[in-house]
Amino acid sequence: MDTKELSLLNYYYGKLNENTFDEKDIYAFLQLIRNRSKEIRCINELTDFVVQREEYRGFIKDYLFETRKKFESLGKTNKTLRIEDVFSFKELKNGINKALEKGQLTGLTNEKLNDFVTCLISILQQINITDDGREIGKLFFAISNKQIILMAEIEVYQNVFKKTNAVFPVLTANNSYLDFKKQDRFDTPYLFADKVIEITNHDGELKIIIPE
């Protein structure tokens, strides 16, 4: 990393730690830490996904299609359906902090990483999921009382004649930003299918902007 690139990394790192960071800083920050983490899968894959969007063909797309297969196998096997985030909070924290340490920067706290993941979820909303050029699903911003979620909705076939949609979480963060009333006792997330959410920064606090 040359001197100029290091100064750019320090700039975005400073914004994150000084609470002036918002979703628009994601692109540059990911690209900069990627250059310090070529062996860290979560950073490489997320950076490619953010930049390439529906043209992306890597691990995260494989994860989406493997999860789709799990739903299609329901009732055909005795396996319990278990869906986990494509990358856990712990994996993201370890990967990002390892990259920062290579730049001689202190790792992010859980709170700062949560801000980062929340912005990342917002950036990834509305990406189409395609199969052989045909749209079969989409990623949406979702929110519950406790969580911010990147939610996938994807069509599944349980037999030749029966098609339905499966909905499952891809990435999650804690909701410490918006007082959102529970929809039910399960705290079922509200999925914003027709609205594009924006994460802004106002006086040092992240704000979730929901269009009316």
SSE map:
Layout: H1 3-17, H2 26-34, H3 41-52, H4 59-72, H5 89-102, H6 110-124, E1 128-131, E2 134-143, E3 147-157, E4 163-174, E5 190-192, E6 198-202, E7 205-209
Antiparallel strand pairs: 1-2, 2-3, 2-5, 3-4, 6-7
Structural descriptors:
37% helix; five-stranded antiparallel sheet; globular; 212 residues; alpha+beta; single chain; 24% strand
What does this structure look like?
With 212 residues, the protein is an alpha+beta fold. The chain has one domain (3-209). The protein has 6 helices and 7 strands; from the N terminus they run ααααααβββββββ. The strands form 2 sheets. Strands 1, 2, 3, 4 and 5 form a 5-stranded antiparallel beta sheet that branches. The protein has a two-stranded antiparallel ribbon with strand order 6-7. The longest helix has 15 residues, at 3-17. The termini are far apart. The mean pLDDT is 92.
Brief overview, please?
By secondary structure, this protein is α+β, with helices and mostly antiparallel strands. Helices cover 37% and strands 24% of the residues.
